[in-house]
Specification:
Elements lengths: L1 E5 L2 E5 L1 H17 L7 E5 L5 H12 L2 E5 L5 H11 L3 E4 L2 H10 L7 E4 L9 E2 H5 L9 H7 L7 E6 L9 E5 H11 L10 E4 L6 H13 L2 E4 L6 H8 L3 E4 L1 H14 L3 H16 L1 H5 L7 H17 L6 E4 L6 H9 L4 E6 L6 E4 L12 E2 L4 E4 L4 E5 L6 E2 L3 H6 L1 E2 L2 E10 L5 E6 L4 E2 L5 E2 L1 H8 L5 E7 L6 E7 L1 H10 L7 H5 L2 H15 L8 E6 L19 H7 L1 H9 L7 E2 L1
Helix pairs in contact: 1-2, 3-4, 11-13, 11-14
């Protein structure tokens, strides 16, 4: 049922072993006086103990509160205090120290640590489990499992907060179960398939995928961090990949970085042209039979496919817009990516492409139990059994996000004549220039990120005369390019300030501008010497940009850039 690596050895866990672990953990929670409706926090990377804790809480009617392990102590404190968690299960010594530093004033009565750590403030989880020995069914425990009803609160998930404001999304057992029942209906997942669980389980998308694997008998292999992803992919060779767009972007950028010059560049460009000619076949799920495609596959496509382990039969993307350019590029190398869409508040899936219904550039058709309509201003509204009940202890914000019984997604969308849903952008991210023109930043940013030397791009210009962009370089690719150009530099600040680097990014922006309306074209570029990170707060734990944080961080440089008027050269920090 599960497999995880510890000490260089992979350990398999059967369903009867997992049942026993959940049983023992649930009984311990009951012995501590944790009852139905009490909150239990979960602060850990993806690992076997995560679903054990989750299922144990759900079994006794407790409400679990997952917290991103990458959050700072202060950020974690908000979720712990706001939820009133009575107990917390955490993973490592680092997470234990984080919690002990903020424990004062909390409701926390019990701390459980998953690693083998001796600390008087915490109980080791191994003490609770005793062993991972298989266990037969316990009738009294099974009766307890059957006591849950759809309206019971299952979890409070705090949004990662692209606006900087975190809210506790209340999801019931019925919300989660109704979404699982429909979202996997047309996905060809089978018993014996392997899925690598590497997206943070604190996020609803990863948790939903893992639940779906349990439901379908797919074996889950755990990867605790993105840094371990390449190694774990080769070790587990999964049949199913569910990733955020940033993962696919990184793969493309690495391929293009390695194929920047010489013979490799020629071969890559030739293979991409061959792929373009067979793109429609790939998007229909067919394997081209032409000799030229087979040769390109042997020389180029197969090595990209092998990076994911070499056995993947389905690639999915969610959590943020994939971007049509990125989807086309992968189709051109023989990989069809099924894009889906949803929010924490919708448990999460609203729509998803699948083998039965696929449309490039869309997020698929809405689930059969989710109703969608487009408001007069273009905002997507949804309703159905998977829509959340409200924000924890925040009735005003709950009222603001509903229009009658329709949930306001905050996304601008459209539904075509075939029933496929397309998402244009976040409503709050739309840029309105001082001339009254609306610009959707995400499609422009997605085009910029197709270039290997662009790490992140942030389109700006709200209430200004024209639109500009802040570019965070992909520094490994940029540094390689600089060496090829014989550019000497001793720091990132010196590198991004070089005139040739400015020219490189200006050329990229010029290429992107050719496909934009005049009012959308990027007039200025600010190149920054920093990498945007979760720790610094520029991106969320799910790798989405925090635009307001970035704009505030570089406010002086942005104001100075606009004060200069229209410029022909990029600015730098």
């Amino acid at each position: 049922m599960l497999t995880y690596e510890r000490g260089g050895v992979w350990h398999d866990v059967s369903s009867r072993q997992l049942y026993g672990c959940v049983h023992r953990t649930a009984r311990q929670l009951e012995d501590w006086g944790i009852r139905k409706g009490d909150r239990v926090a979960l602060l850990a990377e993806n690992r076997m103990e995560w679903p054990v804790t989750d299922f144990a809480c759900l079994a006794i009617g407790a409400v679990d509160v997952p917290i991103y392990p990458t959050l700072t102590a202060e950020q974690a404190a908000f979720a712990l205090k706001n939820s009133g968690a009575r107990a917390i299960f955490l993973s490592t010594k680092q997470q234990l120290e984080k919690v002990l530093a903020i424990k004062a004033g909390m409701n926390l009565e019990r701390i459980v640590v998953m690693d083998e750590i001796e600390d008087p403030a915490a109980v080791r989880m191994s003490t609770i489990l005793g062993s991972q020995a298989p266990m037969e069914r316990d009738s009294a425990f099974d009766t307890l499992l059957g006591a849950a009803v759809p309206d019971d609160l299952a979890t409070i998930i705090y949004t990662s907060g692209t606006t900087g404001i975190s809210k506790g999304v209340m999801l019931t057992h019925g919300n989660l179960a109704s979404n699982l029942a429909e979202s996997g209906r047309s996905l060809e997942w089978q018993v014996g398939d392997v899925s690598l669980s590497f997206l943070p389980l604190s996020h609803v998308t990863a948790r939903h995928v893992d639940y779906l694997c349990f439901l379908r008998g797919v074996t889950l292999a755990y990867c605790p961090s993105f840094d371990e992803l390449p190694k774990k992919l080769q070790e587990t060779r999964p049949q199913l990949i569910v990733a955020v767009p940033r993962v696919y972007e990184k793969v493309r950028q690495e391929v293009e970085r390695r194929g920047r010059s010489g013979f490799r560049h020629m071969i890559l460009q030739w293979a991409l042209k061959i792929g373009q000619r067979h793109r429609e076949q790939i998007l229909r799920g067919e394997t081209p039979d032409s000799q030229e495609w087979k040769l390109a596959n042997r020389l180029v496509y197969q090595s990209i496919f092998n990076w994911f382990g070499g056995k993947v039969k389905m690639f999915l993307s969610g959590g943020a817009p994939l971007g049509i350019d990125l989807a086309q590029w992968f189709a051109d190398v023989g990989i069809r990516i099924f894009e889906g869409y949803g929010l924490t508040e919708t448990s999460p899936v609203i729509a998803v492409n699948n083998p039965e219904a696929y449309e490039l550039g869309s997020v698929g058709k809405p689930l059969t139990n989710v109703e969608c309509r487009i408001a007069a201003d273009g905002e997507l509204l949804v309703r159905g059994p998977s829509i959340f009940k409200g924000y924890w202890q925040n009735p005003q914000e709950t009222a603001n996000t509903f229009e009658g019984d329709w949930f306001k997604t905050g996304d601008i969308g459209e539904i075509d004549s075939q029933g496929f849903l397309r998402i244009t952008d976040r409503k709050k991210d739309l840029i309105k220039t001082s001339g009254g023109k609306f610009v959707a930043p995400q499609p422009i940013e997605n085009k910029l990120k197709t270039f290997a030397v662009v790490g992140y791009s942030v389109v700006i210009g709200n209430l200004r005369k024209f639109v500009s962009v802040v570019i965070c370089p992909n520094f490994p690719a940029l540094q390689q390019w600089a060496r090829e150009q014989a550019i000497t530099f001793s720091s990132r600040e010196e590198l991004v300030a070089h005139s040739k680097v400015a020219g490189l990014y200006q050329d990229i922006v010029n290429q992107v501008n050719r496909d934009l309306a005049h009012f959308e074209t990027l007039k200025k570029i600010l190149i920054v010497p920093d990498e945007f990170t979760v720790e610094a707060g520029e991106v969320t734990p799910t790798l989405k940009l925090r635009r307001r944080v970035i704009e505030q961080k570089y406010r002086k440089q942005i104001d100075a850039m606009y004060a200069e008027g229209k410029a022909s050269h990029p600015a730098t920090v």
